[in-house]
């Protein structure tokens, strides 16, 4: 069912669908149309139908999608039907902010360990997790079968942390350090650097203005 | 020179190019080939040439790109040749972490104001900015000509903040709250929710394994 041809853009929309479907499920809504999904998510309904059709034939004409069934399917597609352990490396402001997200992650994905290089932070608790020394990282990652690492250390330390996580057998890295990391091709790397988001937003500032002018 | 047809994926790569080019410039490297850029950034050189060709004819066959010239051009394309003021709404751990990024932003983009709803935070300083009460937001955004807003408030407050920023005339929003915001079509909205990043990474976990199996 899975194919390497699915673009990352499609994959990144699945958690967005999942979140809205979970909201519907909590409100005990049984079915939803691609039109309703599209309206809520500001996406073209045809795009949504196409995205979901990559993975199977989930919708029924005139009825729409069964909310519970679609939640179950998307969770399977995202591998969230199994426990996925996550480690957070770097317990500064950003690391602490991210550890708060454990509440939102729900599902089976969970931050199970936090590491920091600073002796003053080791032993402190953030969100019920005790900060561990970075020297213990490889051993702990292997023992807890951590599959995803989140890097929130300063940029000069990021590559070394990525190397250690890789050597410990991690499968995917979400990097918040504002630097370009090199990892082996079998490790999936996403850069979550917010300066990229912010600088790319600036691109749209003048465009909007130009459109306004045309409209006027 | 600008066109609405440029995909967001291309736009998001421009800051990445810009960052590496700035590194080269600091090392006093005068020219760079698309091969060198591609190797460093893990991108296909043809992809890089295509990305840059959307905006102009910057490279020279057999020589490559003039580093200083390309930096200047990308900064122009991203509107970074003008001052762009940014406001941060929400001074929790995430907001504080993001305010640290002012150092990385350099260029002309700058966080010039921070707001929070909590009276205990108002008046405190983070990275030389005094936290202001959220009630002052609309007035301050207009007075300082803030064009981009970063939302790092809890999800239940995010839509109200987005509405206020919109009414204050903001042009773009980077939203970190894990909720789907509705903004008028003239406001550019990027969602920087890290749970989406993390959940979509999980998609690739089993794929990697399947590949390993095939390789074995």
UniProtKB/TrEMBL annotation, chains A, B:
Question: One Pfam match, by short name?
Answer: Put_DNA-bind_N
Q: Where in the cell is it found?
A: Cytoplasm
Q: What is its main location?
A: cytoplasm
Q: Which domain of life is it from?
A: Bacteria
User: Could you say which residues bind NAD(+) here?
Assistant: 90-95
Q: Which residues form the CoA-binding domain?
A: 79-180
Q: Which controlled-vocabulary keywords does the entry list?
A: Cytoplasm, DNA-binding, NAD, Repressor, Transcription, Transcription regulation
Q: Indicate the residues that the entry says bind DNA.
A: 16-55
- List, alphabetically, the SMART domains matched: CoA_binding (SM00881)
InterPro entries to which the protein is assigned, alphabetical: CoA-bd, NAD(P)-bd_dom_sf, Rex_actinobacterial-type, Rex_DNA-bd_C_dom, Tscrpt_rep_Rex, WH-like_DNA-bd_sf, WH_DNA-bd_sf
Task: Give the UniProt family note.
Answer: Belongs to the transcriptional regulatory Rex family.
Looking up HAMAP family in the UniProt record yields: Rex (MF_01131)
As for what it does, the entry says: Modulates transcription in response to changes in cellular NADH/NAD(+) redox state.
- The protein here is known as Redox-sensing transcriptional repressor Rex
Species annotation: Paenibacillus shirakamiensis
Q: Gene symbol? A: rex
């Amino acid at each position: 069912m899975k194919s390497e041809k699915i673009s990352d853009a499609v994959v990144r929309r699945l958690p967005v669908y999942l979140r809205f479907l979970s909201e519907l499920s909590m409100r005990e809504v049984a079915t939803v149309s691609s039109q309703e999904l599209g309206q809520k998510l500001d996406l073209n309904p045809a795009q949504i139908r196409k995205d979901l059709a990559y993975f199977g034939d989930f919708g029924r004409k005139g009825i729409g999608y069964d909310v519970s069934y679609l939640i179950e399917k998307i969770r399977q597609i995202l591998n969230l039907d199994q426990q996925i352990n996550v480690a957070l490396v770097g317990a500064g402001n950003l690391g602490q902010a991210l550890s708060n997200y454990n509440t939102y992650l729900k599902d089976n994905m969970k931050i199970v360990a936090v590491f920091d290089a600073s002796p003053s932070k080791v032993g402190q608790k953030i969100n019920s997790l005790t900060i561990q020394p970075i020297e213990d990282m490889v051993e702990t990652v292997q023992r807890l079968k951590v599959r995803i690492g989140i890097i929130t250390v300063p940029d000069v330390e990021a590559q070394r942390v990525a190397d250690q996580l890789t050597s410990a057998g991690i499968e995917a890295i979400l990097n918040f350090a504002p630097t370009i990391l090199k990892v082996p091709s079998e490790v999936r790397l996403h850069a979550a650097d917010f300066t990229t988001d912010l600088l790319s937003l600036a691109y749209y500032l003048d465009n909007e203005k130009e459109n306004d002018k045309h409209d006027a």
